[in-house]
Specification:
It contains seven helices and nine strands. The chain has helices at 46-50, 65-68, 82-92, 114-122, 150-160, 180-187, 190-200, and strands at residues 36-38, 54-56, 70-71, 76-77, 96-100, 108-113, 143-144, 164-168, 174-179. It starts with 35 loop residues before the first strand and ends in an 8-residue tail after the last helix.
């Protein structure tokens, strides 16, 4: 019992096993927990030699959209003003918001991006303080189910040249988002990440 059973108060040194800590990304990405513990190369006997601990992790391979999505994304209403939505984007450092029917059920109506605000409201001379974002919403949104293979989401991103895909459940409620950053951080597949980034970086003929 470290610390005589009263909890550890001294600096961690060669004291044996202690728990893993550290920041985890938001969402339902698989978190590798403590699968098995050892005490150096010699197992439990290793502690008697030099006090080192070693962690052994089981491999975790994401398969579904729920495994790599960012859970419970920030959403806005179609009736929110452009100024309000722009401030939400700034506050949360994001460039897109799912547009939902109401904040309780979060039924997806579409998405609005910072580009949409700029081109469909500001560039047209509309007053962002009074103009609702419903005039700038892109719909229908590109969506997947949380139970779809994550490859479907990546294919949709490449095919439609979009940087994010909404994840909606059977009731069409927004439960997550898969963005380029999720692909890079949670798949850790440089080849696939490169394919997605290259595809979505191509100019969209519909916007040129």
């Amino acid at each position: 019992m470290p610390g005589g059973g009263a909890g550890r108060k001294d600096e961690i040194g060669k004291t044996g096993v202690y728990r893993v800590s550290g920041p985890h990304p938001a969402g339902d990405a698989p978190i590798v927990g403590m699968a098995s513990w050892g005490q150096g190369g010699r197992g439990a006997a290793g502690f008697a030699d030099h006090g080192e601990s070693e962690l052994f992790f089981r491999p975790v391979t994401p398969e579904k959209c729920r495994d790599i999505m960012t859970k419970n994304p920030i959403c806005c209403l179609a009736s929110d003003t452009a100024t309000h939505v722009a401030r939400m984007m700034k506050r949360h450092d994001i460039g897109i918001l799912p547009v939902v029917e109401n904040r309780k059920e979060k039924k997806a109506l579409g998405v609005v991006t910072d580009r949409d605000l700029a081109l469909r409201i500001v560039a047209k001379g509309l007053d962002p303080e009074t103009t609702a974002v419903e005039v700038a919403v892109s719909h229908p949104a590109i969506c997947c189910s949380p139970d779809d293979d994550y490859g479907k989401a990546l294919d949709l991103m490449e095919k439609n040249r979009v940087r994010r895909v909404l994840i909606v459940d059977n009731a069409e409620r927004v439960v997550g988002v898969i963005a380029e950053s999720d692909v890079a951080l949670r798949l850790r597949d440089e080849r696939k990440t490169g394919e997605v980034v290259s595809a979505v970086a191509q100019p969209d003929p519909a916007r040129t």
